[in-house]
Amino acid sequence: MKSILSAFLIVFLIGCKSKQAVATAAANDNTEVTKVINGHYQNTHDFKTLNIRTNAKYEDEKQSHSMNADIRIKKDEIIWINIKFLGIPMAKALITPSKVSYYEKINNTYFEGDFSMLSNWLGTDLNFNKVQNLFLGKAIDDLTKDRWISEVVEKMFKLSLPTKDDISKEFYFEGANYLIKKEIITQASKNRNLEIRYPSYKEEQGMFLPNEIKIKAEQKDKITIDIEFKNTTFNENLSYPYSIPRGYTAIEIN
Predict the structure, then answer these.
(1) Which of 12, 195, 187, 192 has its CA nearest to residue 100?
(2) Bridge partner list, 55
(3) What are the backbone angles phi and psi of residue 125, rounded to the nearest 5°?
(4) Measured CA distances, 84 to 22, 67, 79 (Å)
(5) pTM summary value
(6) Within the chain, what is the greatest distance between any pair of CA atoms?
(7) What is the predicted pLDDT for the residue at 181?
């Protein structure tokens, strides 16, 4: 990717300052896989719209930048992201179950495509639900579709798949509410590694949401993005304005 904004948006697509720490507990060896998975999915998110205001920091091996991002979610239909530097809108993304689109103003470029191109770039299958789950603090994969191996690691429940192919996956949960703390997806053949961490959560309107999300993607280079939730509001009448400006150049993700 040629620009910081393009790289930020690509990794962002895979994400209140008051740290209202939700009670956590250490895992124990007696808990079965089914109990972990069922406990995780009992943490439902019952809303129509969600508006998240965040602070974010992007860093790679050559540069580091801070920015703000507004994230609006119409549940199961739209994810809209507006990225601003010093209060000035510099990039937007619009994600639906069938399409991924974004543009950025520094280089006047845009991308339009489906999730297959992003999946190839990151080395893991992506779809709308997985991106939505990332922002909500849910496991990006559907855990009910595989047979997992469970063990206790660092006082967390770790679920992993038996190694059968090039891609390995690990999910880590705390023991009180089975909130996800960390997920790691690795593609060994291409030296790709994606790690998503959730250091803490808050409870709002009966729903658990992250206080922050820390993303690290490694391939040839290492990119880190730290997202801090500043404010969240539910069930407002939100708009999702999006239009690629004239004269922008399309880019491809290789």
Answers:
(1) 12
(2) 68, 228
(3) -65, 130
(4) 30, 6, 17
(5) 0.85
(6) 60
(7) 97
